[in-house]
Write a structure and sequence with these properties.
The two termini are 25 Å apart. Helix content is 47%, strand content 17%. It is an alpha+beta fold.
Length: 276
């Protein structure tokens, strides 16, 4: 069964947005599998996928109930996708922007969308995995697409790194004008501290508000940090370290050469995997 673990963790992570929880779900699925007579199961891989997807849906429902009590915006746990890691299938990991958008969906819509758009399942296969009708699968996908704004890209594009270099140059020189030229007019910044690290508790919207925040935060907190460039969920990111401890992951969502969203991950619990 171990050969299926990276695939199963990827399914669970895409649904949950938490790598730690995804690993727990897969372990639970393995334990359930060992409790049954596996000799009667013809396709162990599909059986495990079905188990993991349904366990993940239930876990996501519980997670979504808790998000209302979360201190500030809840963001998915970021995953490094530029380095080889046998624990997860990087190619199938969804982009960070899409992971954030999918928080609009309920757990079952999210699962249908992921199975169809990310893993190329037919509706007949989705119906079998989720124990629903083909028609219900089609309806759930249609509703998911409507909420995500039809045409939301799932395919990964090469991470645009030019904007990161321009961003670093502008912010390190304190050049407000140059920084503003990098942003879409309706840029949004979200920050997740989880109540365990200082972070903006409300979304920041618009060039002026985002620029002012970034300039202030850099001058106060990051001037003397070690900054590394990386790729997180197929999108460019900056990683900020103090004494070799990762304290912030800043993810850039870039559209048409300009930044349209910033995601700041400050919650130390969600930075553990990136720290490794």
């Amino acid at each position: 069964m171990e050969e299926f673990r990276p695939l199963l963790i990827t399914y669970a992570y895409n649904i949950l947005g938490s790598l730690e929880e995804a690993k727990d779900i897969v372990q639970d699925a393995f334990l359930k599998f060992m409790d049954i007579d596996s000799s009667k199961i013809d396709d162990k891989r599909n059986y495990l996928i079905r188990t993991v997807v349904n366990l993940s849906i239930n876990a996501k429902k519980r997670q979504q109930k808790l998000v209302g009590e979360y201190p500030g915006p809840w963001l998915p746990e970021p995953v490094a996708t530029e380095k080889a890691d046998g624990g997860i299938m990087q190619k199938e990991v969804l982009s960070y922007s899409l992971m954030v958008l999918m928080e609009k969906l309920n757990a079952r819509q999210r699962a249908v969308f992921i199975l169809k758009e990310a893993f190329d399942y037919e509706h007949e296969e989705i119906a079998e995995v989720l124990d629903i009708s083909v028609e219900n699968s089609r309806k759930l996908l249609s509703r998911a697409r409507e909420q995500l704004q039809k045409g939301t890209p799932v395919a990964h594009k090469p991470a645009e790194t030019a904007a990161i270099d321009k961003y670093l140059n502008a912010i390190q020189q304190g050049n407000t004008h140059e920084l503003e030229q990098l942003f879409h007019d309706e840029i949004v910044l979200l920050s997740d501290g989880g109540g365990k690290a200082i972070a903006a508790t409300r979304p920041l919207v618009g060039i002026k508000a985002v620029t002012s925040f970034l300039m202030g935060v850099y001058a106060k907190n990051y001037q003397f940090a070690r900054i590394e460039k990386g790729t997180v969920n197929h999108e460019p990111a900056l990683l900020y370290y103090f004494d070799n401890v990762l304290v912030t992951c800043q993810i850039f969502s870039i559209r048409d050469g300009q930044v349209d969203n910033f995601y700041f991950m400050r919650n130390p619990d969600k930075l553990k995997e990136l720290q490794k």
